[in-house]
User: Fold these one by one.
Assistant:
Number 1:
Amino acid sequence: MCHENYFNVAYQNDNLHGAMGAYMREEGYERPIIMAPNYPAGTDALAGFKHLYEGEVVGELYTQMGQTDYAAEIAQIRDSNADSLFFFLPGGMGISFMKQWESSGVDMPIFGAAFSFDEILIKAVGSAAIGARNTSLWAYDLENEANERFVEGFREAYDRTPTLYAAQGYDTANLILSALETAHPDDKDAFREALRAADFDSVRGEFRFGPNHHPIQDIYVREVVEGDDGEPTNRLIGIAVEDIQDIYFEQCQM
């Protein structure tokens, strides 16, 4: 379903999960158990993880959308002989799970994607989030001029640290503005080429479009730590995968 006028400034749905699979493999985790809700984004998440982990997982758990009680899943994880847990539970599901996980006493490294560990969610999770590692296309402490300007301006305007959603929205606006400086939207061919060039300073660092107009970009790893104010916050610890590209681009013949 690719189209010449379609541009994605965020990510293909597997990317952050696949990057964490690659990171955990490189870190030496040999027996992960993986968990996500049973809906398309959840199945995408686990498929993406397995694609770049390139090893066997000890189990896959599919939860219900909107689930609030994870006692059964935590019991399965406890009995799984896994050496690590990767999960995708966005929003309130992740908050509920992490609070129950902390009280369960299970001692196992936690990994996920930024969708369960953005700056708003980890404040709600509290101390249970400390030590978890997550992948993101962006981090607020990335050292580049565009990002420093963005984070400072966002904090001044909204009195909080931005999330990856704000970062990709900001990049989208700047992409469109960069194209408008080059071509008028009435000239569709010229405007499309101006968008494809992606001639703007991204807050995430290097950014370019692949042949299907999905990003080719680095995916970063962050760890949740206790901030100077005593609240959980993400700290950049490295790059999971450089220049990641979705696995479907060859199916797009533009």
Number 2:
Amino acid sequence: MIINQGDKEDQTNTFNKYAFACAIVASMVSIVSGYDTGVMSGAMLFIKEDLGISDTQQEVLAGILTLCALVGSLTAGRTSDYIGRRYTIFLASILFILGAGLMGYGPNYAILMVGRCVCGVGVGFALMIAPVYSAEISSASSRGFLTSLPELCIGIGILLGYISNYVLGKYLSLKLGWRLMLGIAALPSFVVAFCILTMPESPRWLVMQGQLGKAKKVLMQVSNTTQEAELRLKDIKIAAGLDENCNDETVKLPQKSHQGEGVWKELILRPTPSVRWMLIAAVGIHFFEHATGIEAVMLYSPRIFRKAGITGKEKLLLATIGVGLTKIVFLVIALFLLDKLGRRRLLQISTGGMIIGLTLLGLSLTVVDKSNGNVLWALILSIVATYAYVAFFNIGLGPITWVYSSEIFPLKLRAQGASIGVAVNRTMNAVVSMTFISIYKAITIGGSFFMFAGISVLAWLFFYFFLPETKGKALEEMEMVFTKKSSGKNVAIEMDPIQKV
């Protein structure tokens, strides 16, 4: 498939405020998703004391959210193809309301686990659909910025979770404090559910339903000129297998085309060479996002700081808030670099910095572990290395994972292709979060971060050799990016011409 109009989409580079507003609303659900992740790191300190749960139960409680998110992410692709991107986000909000209510009630460990599972399914829906929706309403010139907003909102949610831990844990009783920490997430979920109903559907999904008139109206709103909207609509129609000159308000498409049926066959069983390469890229970047240890730092940062020599719940939670602030600051910086420096360069800078940060963290924690008393320089180095690792992760690998996997797949395969990536992401998240305590007990906490540093080296090599640059390319051009033989720093792989989707 050859798209001749893609480069013209960027004739106007003026930022579209309506597209930005839509992406903000879609990304709001990620704040709740991030809050559910961040709040548990501190809440577990209080849950353990109140309910008397073991280390194994803590690992299960921490990791069950990501296991259930795996189920949610695998379901979300087909769901969003069937009911639309907008109502899939609405469904995620409803799941957050139910899950937060159950956790806030939390009379015992079993009910707490059920609520955590319900929230986990919601997280799986949110992680997959928010970036996909943002990618589908944005132009090529601003797609990196808009598609990374969900990751920024996750960071905001995590920070709010850390702050909630500190404030509620300090001023409320043990029994009420952690329950309010977990249950309060129901309130913003109500707001998100209401706001989502006011935003338009993805124009690309509308085209897949044959609703060309509605798709054109949305494109007129999220484009800066009528010419840009018409060019984008023409490219989308070609990608959907329609006549680019078709001006009907509605057209009838085969059921398999507009409801996402047969997609798994094209993705897994008989993919074209370019689609196979896209799938390898998406699965690889999602695998390495968590295999490099970010969940160990974000979820178990109080334990890390305690090992380093920081004592007292208040000091531990304050140090953890610093992690959340670092995440937010560098995610904001990443927003403005993604569409300027490009995905590949930022990934290489990010992963290189992560290798250094993890190595220094492993070194400092090993020194602390082998010393009889407190070693001030090692304590300081462990804090600085932790913050540096979080900073480098969030300036590149964190946001780019979601941008890249949401933009590379063809229109028909995008939702379910992205859901496979999220499923891998949630699997690795669960593996790290549920095994980290056991790993550091087996090979020491310093050794565990040396292990993550080694995996980060493999990640850098994978990104360098397997991920072509996608900056500035229209979504409908991605098949050409993964088909042609790339030159220079791009992937030196030549693939056969592919068929039209």
Number 3:
Amino acid sequence: MKISTTDLFSAYQTNDLYCELFGNVARALRPDTEAVISRLSALDPERLKERARDAERELYNLGITFTVYTQKDVIDRILPFDVLPRVIDAQDWQTINEGVVQRVSAINHFLHDIYHEGHILKDGIIPAELVLGNSNYRPEMEGLTVPYGTYAHISGIDIVRGEDGRFRVLEDNARTPSGVSYVVENRHLMQRAFPDLMEGMGIQPVSNYGQKLHEALVDVAPPHIPEPQVVLLSPGSYNSAYFEHIFLAREMGVPLVEGRDLTVENDRVYMKTISGQRPVDVIYRRLNDDFLDPQVFNPDSLLGCPGLMTAYAKGNVTLANAVGTGVADDKAVYAYMPRIISYYLDQDPILDNVETHICREREGLQYTLDHLEELVIKPVGEAGGYGITVGPKASPEELEACRANLQDNPANYISQPMINLSVCPTLTDEGIAPRHVDLRPFAVTGRDTWVLPGGLTRVALRKGSIIVNSSQGGGSKDTWVLQATQDSQP
């Protein structure tokens, strides 16, 4: 289906997919999105391409990169940036915001429960072996109380929209979700490159993320400390997200440290400085549980700090996110999130899950094997888009390999129907074309939960691809959440 408009979008076709800018052709455009379309339509296509090239050069010059270790010839890459923004109106954002807050609340209730009374396991709402046998379950957290019951201080909830226009949650990220630096830097880039496009549009700001994150981390510091010292713990410069670590430390105004910069004495964590040791009260850690403390987890780890878990268990330091939160973003546990929300909050989910078949269960495995060519099969322990088999796009050989893997280790897989993800107008070599997108809003939780207005819009730049991950050729867009107008009030 062809969009009836002129100029920049004159040849733009949605191919009957839901478009994040134009919506469904069957419905009238909302007044606030009409204003954006009008201004975008007036852009000169050739000038747009020039400004896009300038923007990509700026990204590289600023060092806004990530590392892909699987590509031997390319180490540092910029995250490709598309200059046509993804627009979210006020009504849609209200739904997303409330749904994310609800989900994060349920996740924190769930994590507290499984490490304490375990009511949800005793009541059979979720199989006990799925939790207690999970590789991310940490017995060291049993009985350990964390401030305000907040385990997932920083959460990234991956959301997609299908052909029906409804938002659904695709994945939960409750360990060390990444990508928020691109949200803020994309906005800064757009403000420099397209001030004329953004002026007067009523776009909600994102530049206060560092302040909000710092406030939340101070909230959860050990009690009776007047000015808690927060630090960001990084694995170091060889980590793929090191740019983000630098960015977030700078935005919060806190030291960026590595494990070798920390020491534990008398169950208290200290940071080594040129003027002596300084106490540390809150650690925003960007390394996995296994590497935090060689005395408790991986004894060969050089990235963490010996004695850290003892200080943590005694309440002398707060770790964000808490140890053991990985259980909550396991892809098999994800399938039970609607039940988890109902169990703890006595509410229906505001944002539904994508339908999910758990292959560790006999019915789920059989359904997946019977409908292999129709489904997307995902390993529960992988991230970054690796290990996924997209049934409708897979070759016969790939389907047979997937079938063998499922039969060999069914507990390692889930399957979901292939969703025709919504699209956004995207600048390509062939002109403006639809490309599939998802959205990762970031929630920050201390005493309460605040959601950054917008989030990371990832875009599958390859024609026909639904894999939006940066490691798989995806890029990003600036995400504009429009402020409510009188016409858009519910």
